[in-house]
Amino acid sequence: MSERPKRTVRKPVRLLAGGVADASQPRTKRKAQQLSIDDNALDTLLTSPKSTLTNVDVSDIINANTWAFLSDESKAHLSKLLPPTAFSDYQRTIDPGHPSHTKDPDPNAMVVDSTRGLQGSHGADRVLPSVFTDPHFLAAAHTFQDHLYSGWLKPEFKVKVAKHEEGIRDGTLAAPWKDEEWEKEHCLGENDTSKSLPSKSRSNGGATNGKVGHTAEIRMYDLAKNSVVRVGDIISYKRHFASLGVVIEKDVLVHSINTRARSLTVLLEPGPTQHLPSYLSMSDPSDPIPPIQSMEITSPTMLETGILDVDGRVERGKRPNGNAWKILTVYRWREEAASSMADNKGGRESHGTLHYLRNSHFSDT
Question: What is the pTM of this model?
Fold first, then answer.
């Protein structure tokens, strides 16, 4: 990570009424000159981490005096980028839902008399000179300098951002889930592993046979290999998509474990149907018949993506990131229980989410 640029930061020039610089403030003598800059040089100035803009005091470049030297056309263009509070005709408004808002408006008021939404005219002649010394404005300008110095405005960086955003929208990329990041950052060191081991392991001098790592390293196949997830289990998916007002629920049956591919094959109903047919929810079910579909998965995220694709109600671009380990619950028969038609899961009982089972398996090892 690059360090912040070293630049001189001093108090901006104090302004008197009307936007005239205070004569008592020291002024740097500079020789006035007309600068001619081509497009390539301007592009370098505004995008390159080596730009001179990263080292200067931003208040020397953007202030009321330099604003006054701009043409009317430039002022009109730039004033559209300023917030409504930068203009002298700005009027504060109260949202209709706020308790202070008048509940009984004037019945004689015309629509044109309403001040709702009246912010500022964005007229260049109404820009307040004090906006250029406002701490919020200067903080935003310094943030621009930091982004410029860090290379975040370079064209190649923007291409990377666009590619990542496209991957998020189409479901091919996902940001690391915060729980997994925490586990990576707080994983136990070699000197601390004995504190979390069972008493038997501690009595053996903390020997772990190489099993202790962190939970993020445990994969779906690892759970199946250690009988945490078994053939015949039903994995139930449920997620509420608040922005769409849709709740997606679907059951899948663990049909087989593929050792060579280190994957699991699951069966599920097509479309938005939630539960499996009764013949698949019983013990020793017969071979699946159409329209039952099969899916090979290696991770909970892959399973969630497949379920949503089969369901078809939530497009890939509208699926927010989430921890699929926490929204998939394993249902299994108790050892002494037999299959039953009493419910849609053949009498199976909740065994916990994959997240819980993974953490429990980690603790046991």
Answer: 0.46
